[in-house]
Structures are given as structure tokens and as C-alpha cells.
Amino acid sequence: AQSVSQHNHHVILSEAASLELGCNYSYGGTVNLFWYVQYPGQHLQLLLKYFSGDPLVKGIKGFEAEFIKSKFSFNLRKPSVQWSDTAEYFCAVTPYSSASKIIFGSGTRLSIRP
Amino acid sequence: ETGVTQSPTHLIKTRGQQVTLRCSSQSGHNTVSWYQQALGQGPQFIFQYYREEENGRGNFPPRFSGLQFPNYSSELNVNALELDDSALYLCASSLDRRYSNQPQHFGDGTRLSIL
Fold it and tell me: How far is A79 from chain B (nearest CA, A)?
């Protein structure tokens, strides 16, 4: 069955620390990949997306993610986090053959110490 | 542009009852998806509607059903409510389901509590 795994349930960092959140998916075909973010009290918002081309994609607020096809991974990174990055982060996959279905990971809660 | 709006924001029901949740899609979007998000989990895909017809369904029983109207707004109906149905129900709209690279735009959700 198709699935998305996010390795860290809760990550706590200090401001200015570097961030990497892991995401692996299980699906043998072509996929589209997303990272969504949910800030406290807000709805899910798209952070960045990968469809094709350069496997290093840049999103909003200084976030980037790298698609490594051989590892079925799409890790999220940010060189220097800010307190305002405190949120829940969800990795998601859409199989190219099934445009209707988005499969989400269980999420990673990121807490930033000021 | 108007975003995705859901109503009601909170709802309390008892086991065995039926519930209807509503969603207005973002302007110009003809595709609506519904998700269930249990506490501490990621959203789970329930089903998607495209031009008033169901287009894809996740692992949810038939007591979860939906509708999409000509203006692309949508309803999620759940019959014979069970305690495990307590969750946040999210609606998301996208421009057109034929394009898998279209991101989904989410509403704030309806928090459903079953007593």
C-alpha cells in the first residue's frame, strides 16, 4: 500500500539552528511531492511542491526540499529557523496515475525556542 | 479571491446520529476533496468530487458519502456516527482534478465530536 513516513514526531530547536525533517514514501511510480505547513490556529498551507525537473525545490519562507528518487525521500530543510516557524509540517504524495488521491504523512511538530 | 470555507466550525453529536458538513470551494476550483484528521495524525483521504461526481475514494465505509453541487460546493454526510468518527474534517479544493500537479487549498475544518 502507498504510504508516507515522517521520521520525527516532534522536533525542538533553538532559533538560528538548521532544520531537516525527513520524509520517505512508498510508491514505485511517478509521484508529485508536497510539503504543507499548519501554523497554530491556521489552516494547512502549501510550503513547496515538486513535479519534475530540478530535484531541489525552493518554497516560501526560506524552506527547500530535495527529491532523491533512489531513496524515495523528500526531506525538508531550512538553514536557520525562526520562532515563527513553530508549526506542524506534513509531507504528502500524489501518485501521478491517481491525481485524486493525496497521501499525507503523520506530521512533524516543530517547536522553536526563542 | 475567496478561500475555502467550511461550516460549521464545531459540532457535537451522539453515536448513531447523522451529520452533514459543508464546504465552499475556492473561486474557480471545480474539484473538492475531503479528509479526516484524527488527533495526532495526518489527514486521511475520504473522497474527491469533480463536476458533481465522485472521483476517487479512500478506505472509508459507505456510511461516508458526499455530494457536489453545480456551483462546486460540496457536502460530506456521515451516517450512524461512531465514537471513532471524532476528528477534524478538512475540505480542500483544487483547480482541476485532471492535473495532478495542482496543489490543494484547505479550509479551516469542522471539528466533530461524538459523545
Answer: 25
- Residue A38's H or E segment, with its range, is strand A31-38
The CA distance from A91 to the nearest CA of chain B, in Å, is 9
Task: A39-43: list long-range contacts, CB under 8 Å, 24+ apart.
Answer: A39/A86, A39/A87, A40/A86, A40/A87, A42/B108, A43/B4, A43/B90, A43/B106, A43/B107, A43/B108, A43/B109
Closest Cα in chain B to A41? B108
Question: Is residue A57 a contact partner of residue A65, using CB atoms and an 8 Å limit?
Answer: yes
Report the candidate in B11, B1, B15 with the shortest Cα–Cα distance to residue B76: B11
The pLDDT value recorded for residue A99 is 60
pLDDT tens for residues B35-56? 999 988 899 999 999 989 998 8
Cell of B74: 460540496
